[in-house]
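Hi there, hope your week has been kind to you so far. Would you mind checking whether the tokens look sensible for this chain? I owe you a coffee for this, so here goes:
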Amino acid sequence: MDKTAPRRYRGQSPDTRQAQRRQQLLDAALTVIGERGFSSMTVKMVCQTAGLTERYFYESFSNRDALLAELYQQQTQSLRHTMYNALENPVANADQFVRNGLGAFFDFVQHQPAAARLVLFEVLAVSREIDQLYYQAMEDFAALVQQLAHRQNIATIPPPADEDMVYAGLVGAVVQIAQRWVLGGYHQPRSAVLESAVLIFAATANFGGDS
């Protein structure tokens, strides 16, 4: 047994211990970003928050950007899973489909403010690589909504509009609403925020009408 290993990890494999330290760093980074923002975050802050020495940071990440990239992908993957669960079940009409998906998203924004700050603001204009992750995530969210709407046959995008671009625009509009809500200190009631986003879907993609 490695006698230099921390006492709390005894009996666990080196890979397991490293994975746990990696997740500690990710969790700590989310806390720091939520409180201070990515631009103010240092490796030292993350390690202090995680209760680890800096050598363990570089065991898992080459730099701050690498940590940010993994944290962002982890959080957006979790959000996509949440939204998929909200959207996949059969519904009576298109309006309920939209409300289920948007409700799950705005619950995330309201109840996970650190993650919302990361996803909505802190990854913007960091680097070309991080920008690409952001754009890909937006594409993935648009594709998710589009795929599940098709599966339930509840939305119509009339030609000559480009369906992919319409869904990208819908996701972008919802993100803008969420950003405004957060920047305003969540002062608007959640119901008003939700109805604003529902209106955009109903007007743009024929959701919630006679579908």
User: Anything to note?
Assistant: The mean pLDDT is 89. The chain has nine helices and no strands.
